[in-house]
Amino acid sequence: MEGEDGYMKLNCKNHFKSRQKSKDFSLYTHYYCIMLVFGCIGILIFMLTVIGLNFWDKKMDFSQNVNISSLAGSKRMCPNDWLLNQGKCYKFSTSSKTWNESQRDCTKLQAHLPVINNSKELEFIQKSLKPGCPGWIGLYIISPEKQWQWINEHAFVEQNIFSVIGPTNIMSCAVTTGNQVYSEDCHSKFNGICQRDVV
Amino acid sequence: MMSHIVFIPLNIILIVLVVKFSKYPKTMQCAGEWIGVREKCFYFSDDTRNWTASERVCSSQGSELAHIDTQEDMEFLKKHTETKMYWIGLSRKPGESWKWTNGTTFNAWFEISGDGSFAFLNADGVSSSRGLVDIKWICSKPRF
């Protein structure tokens, strides 16, 4: 009985020991393996990211250098906050003023209300305007002959690029919305558009 | 005939009672995209039209181009226009004074700049135009 008991005890101990052993080593090495693999993958991703970012930054720097040098070369520069289109710079004002006031504001910025020479210029201006914010352009009638003329004193040729909707009274000034040019009273208040050559 | 005359005071009493005790109209909300301010509902359009077409849209919605009575309403509307321009319900015929779209004469409690015949509002105030340009508009209707 005793022997049997002792054997039982031993057997039980052995069984316990072997279970503990397997928990201590084989199970933990399994975890270590998984953690090691994940760690390796993590380090790999980190290194790739660092390399990638470095490369991308260098590429960005390179393209910026190219842009600036090409701009400096052909002198196609606009002042800050101005938009460049077809060799001219544009600034769209958000304060509403009379035609004269808007023209005066442009003069202070060494610019003038836009003189539109081709349909691409008109298209750019109209696309840049926010809906519901018409802007003055450099077209007006002050002569008793009731003829539209540009502020550079060139006559406006109706059919060439666009036509002006509305009356041709004295003291009419032209305003453009996103898709049409209208005749307006010069004392009305709309936003101004300034145009100047590149510097 | 006599029975009708008897009904008149009864009707008056009934109307007075309804007005006095019903609180529902005072809490009435403005529908959908309309914004409730004090005694009016206002609608700011996304679309752009000329003055006449804008007025047609407002009246088709059971309202009118914005009728502005009070300084508080004016301040609210100006704040909401941001940098955009909106038609309001004031116009004048050549040689006549400014009128609201319901036909009442404008008592000039605010300034309208320019020599045009149709009024629009933006953050800077009210200006006049020839009414042909496509800009946004504000409709208004009584809230109660």
Care to describe what's here?
The complex is a heterodimer of chains A (199) and B (144). Chain A is α+β, with helices and mostly antiparallel strands and 199 residues long. Chain A is 47% helix and 21% strand. Chain A is built from three helices and eight strands; from the N terminus they run H-E-E-H-H-E-E-E-E-E-E. Chain A has helices at 2-74, 99-108, 119-128; strands spanning 83-85, 88-97, 135-141, 149-150, 164-165, 172-176, 181-185, 190-197. In chain A, strands 1, 2, 3, 4, 5, 6, 7 and 8 form an eight-stranded mixed beta sheet that branches. In chain A, strand 3 (135-141) and strand 4 form a beta hairpin. The longest helix of chain A has 73 residues, at 2-74. Chain A is rod-shaped. The termini of chain A are far apart. The relative contact order of chain A is 0.14. With 144 residues, chain B is an alpha+beta fold. Helices cover 28% and strands 26% of the residues of chain B. Chain B has three helices and nine strands; from the N terminus they run H-E-E-H-E-H-E-E-E-E-E-E. In chain B, strands 1, 2, 3, 4, 5, 6, 7, 8 and 9 form a nine-stranded mixed beta sheet that branches. The longest helix of chain B is centred in the N-terminal third of the chain and has 20 residues, at 2-21. Chain B starts with a helix and ends with a strand. The mean pLDDT of chain B is 87. The A-B interface holds A 94-96, 98, 130-134, 165-167, 171, 175, 177-180, 182-185, 187-191 and B 46, 48, 83-86, 113-116, 122, 124, 127-130, 132-136.
